[in-house]
Amino acid sequence: MELKELLKECKNNRVSAQKCLFDTFASNTFLLCRRYLKSDEDAEEMMFNGYLKIFKGANQFNYSSEAAVWAWIKKIMVNECLMHLRKKETFLLSVDLVNEEQSNDETALEKLSADEIYKLITQLPIGYRTVFNLFAIEGYSHKEISATLNITEGTSKSQLSKAKKMLQQLISHNENDYEKRDIR
User: Fold this and answer.
1) Structural domain contains residue 98
2) What are the contacts of 53-56 at 24+ separation with CB within 8 A?
C-alpha cells in the first residue's frame, strides 16, 4: 500500500493501517529516539508515545510527499524525547571543560562504521548530545534550538562546540584502541 493511502486509512482509525505505518518506520524512529535517550526502554516508550500522537493527529496532517511524512514523524519523535528529558529533569547543559587536544589524523573518522559513530554520540553528556543531534543531525538552527530548549543561542553554540571537541576526543581514543588491537 502506498504511503498516501496508508495515511488516509490511519485517519479512518484502521488498526491494520496504523500497524503498517508503525512497521514501516519503527526501526528508524527507535534509532532516532535512542540518539536522544540513554536507555532502550526510554527510547521505546517515547517512540510508542510518539506513535500515539501520530495516530491521534493524523487528521491534521495533509500528505504532500513521503519526505514530508518522515519529517512530520521525526518532529513528533524528537519532541517526545525532549519532553521526556525535561520531565525527568535530566536535561542539564554540561559545563565540563573539554580537553582542547584534538586528533590531527583526519582519517580517524573514516575508519569508524556508522554504528561506532552512533555509539560515540550516545556517550556524550545529555546537553551536548541533545544540541549536537538537533543541530548536526536534525538540521535545526541555533535560533530554533534555543527556542526549543529554552536556552540562549550562545549556549547552544557553546554546547555544540564542546560536543564536537568531545567527539573528536572519543574518536581519537577509539582510534588508539584499534591500533592497540592491531598490534597484538
Assistant:
1) no
2) 53/80, 54/10, 54/21, 55/10, 55/13, 55/18
Q: Which domain holds residue 113?
A: 109-183
pLDDT tens digits for range 96-135: 444 444 444 455 566 778 888 888 898 999 999 999 999 9
Residue 172 to residue 168: CA distance in whole angstroms: 6
45 CB contacts (<8 Å, ≥6 apart)? 84
pTM: 0.77
The grid coordinates of residue 133 equal 543531534
The CATH number that applies at residue 20 is 1.10.1740.10
Q: Is residue 73 classed exposed, middle or buried when 0-12, 13-18 and 19+ CB atoms within 10 A define those classes?
A: buried
Residues, the chain:
184
CA angle 69, 70, 72 (to 5 degrees): 65
Tell me the C-alpha distance between 151 and 125, whole Å: 16
CA-atom Rg of the chain in angstroms: 19
Residue 124, φ and ψ in degrees, nearest 5: -65, 150
